[in-house]
Amino acid sequence: MSVDFGGDDSLCGLAVMINYIECNFSLFFINDLYYKSLLFLFLIFSSSSIYAKSQIDSIRFTGNDTTQESVLLREMYIAEGDYIDDAKIHQSIQGIRDLELFSEVTYYISETHDDRYADNLFSELVIHVEEKIYLLVIPRLKLRDNQLGVGIQLKWENVFGLDHRLKLLYENKGEEEGVKEYRTRFRYNYKNINDSDYSLNLSLISENSVTQSPEFDYQNSYDDSLQMSLFKWHNELHHKNGEYTSIGFGLHQRAHETLSGQYIDDANANFMTFSWGYKNVHKFAYNRQGKHFGFDLEASDSVFGSESEYIKNVLFYRSYYTFKSRPGDNLNIQAQLGYSTDDILGDKAFKLDFRNDLRGYDKNSYQGNSMLLLNMEYMIPSEPFPTLRYLGFIDVGNTYEKLSDIKENSLNIGIGAGIRWKIKSFVKVDLRFDVGYGLADDNYQFTFGTRHAF
User: Fold this and answer.
1) What's the pLDDT tens digit per position in 281-303?
2) Where does 2-131 sit in CATH, by number?
């Protein structure tokens, strides 16, 4: 036999008590305090017996052929031996959904007769998940100035069923001034190290790019970087929401040469990173809800053996709104304010263009050591196919040499429309196609990606 929630048991218990009172209504008209006391004790005993049957004796997961049970248990707000609580069950189910490892998460409570229990009932919470495809190989094609760039990306979103994330990328970006440009990238996210509250993030990147230099005309720059950070949620129940902090370090090496092969120079930046923030964003079938805000710091100094010295700060705020009257819609808002005390290996700390949330503007349109950016999107699902969503957006931003310049310089505005296609079979795959118009440049830009803009 199966039932839904402990709340139903409570209603049944209430019905029993009401029925008893109706059958014995005349007792309330007896002036004998003895009978009234007996009735009162009986009602209390009956109520406590009914609630005792609402205890969860077991929690069982089904459908998790790859995902280990420990990953799911970390998201539970209710445990074996607890009384059935609708709110805690719903929190647990939402926590499992927020992992984004499953296309569906459903549950039910089963009660069977078992002589081992005093009330002769065995209550089991059964949670069923439908796993997504975790290993994905994505070909990459990019057409730029009639040059075709090709590459391949491997994404393993649930390594060993432990919710670890692995990403590998190799990309031939094409040629610039007769020089081949490439990029290789390795990223690994090791969550809950040895079942602790800490997670490790590792990133290795190697690439080259051809840029125009006033002194040498064109130069080829080679970049190699390593970054590691330790991340922790400050949540008493160890769930993936609430306050968090992260601390780490990185190494960045850059070398230059002219296109004729003449060596110019090299530089390095050894830096420390620190992040603090608060995140409580829930993922639903087709949209998101919640807030994420925080502060990121990156500091490089000769104390760390660095040839470059700077302090880079970023404040950010993101909010995702849903509406009761239109549950499939989403209003998404982002604000960022950044400042760096100096250039980073000869480059400005911030860049804004169609790839960096200022849609409608050319590559590297705005560069500076200070930055202000505001974004707003409104997303509407297609009626027959809710996985397909349409949106309109407005991006506002600019870069500056100093923060004080913000008051003196106007903001650049980009407006446009786009399409999102949520592929439920894959982890975190929202195909994105945007057309942006930059009002300041009177220019259009097309953007394609596999994830949200923010």
Assistant:
1) 999 988 999 999 999 999 999 99
2) 3.10.20.310
What gap in Å lies between CA 105 and CA 431, rounded to an integer? 23
Say yes or no to pLDDT of 119 above 60. yes
pLDDT in tens, 90-114: 999 999 999 999 999 999 999 888 7
What backbone phi and psi angles, to 5 degrees, belong to 246? -145, 140
Q: Which residues are CB-contacts of 196 (< 8 A; sequence separation ≥ 6)?
A: none
C-beta of residue 142 within 8 angstroms of C-beta of residue 173? yes
pTM of the model: 0.82
Which of 20, 49, 103 minimizes the C-alpha distance to 284? 103
Report the distance separating Cα 277 and Cα 247, nearest Å. 12
Confidence class of residue 76 from pLDDT cuts 50, 70 and 90? Answer: very high
- Phi first, then psi, for residue 48 (nearest 5°) are -65, -35
Helix (H, G, I), strand (E, B) or coil at 36: helix
Instruction: Pull the structure tokens for residue 432.
Output: 């994105």
- d(CA 288, CA 284) in angstroms, rounded, equals 6
pLDDT at position 34: 59
Q: What is the pLDDT of residue 215?
A: 67
Spatial distance between the Cα atoms of 64 and 72, rounded to a whole number of angstroms: 9
CA gyration radius, the chain: 29
Domain limits, the chain: 2-131, 135-449
Between the alpha carbon of residue 218 and those of residues 307, 338, 431, the distances in Å are 24, 29, 35
On average, the pLDDT of the chain sits at 86
DSSP 273-295: EEEEEEEEEEE-SS-EEEEEEEE
- Per the DSSP assignment, residues forming a β-bridge with 233 are 244
Three-class SS state of 18 = helix
Helix 33-52 to helix 6-23 angle, to the nearest 10 degrees?
A: 160
Confidence band (pLDDT; 50, 70, 90) for 230? very high
186-213 residue pLDDT tens: 999 999 998 888 999 999 999 998 877 6
Q: Find the DSSP H helices in 82-213.
A: 86-98
**What CATH number labels 135-449?**
2.40.160.50
DSSP 315-382: EEEEEEE--SSSTT-EEEEEEEEEEESS-BTTB-SEEESTTTT-TTS-TT-EEESEEEEEEEEEEEE-
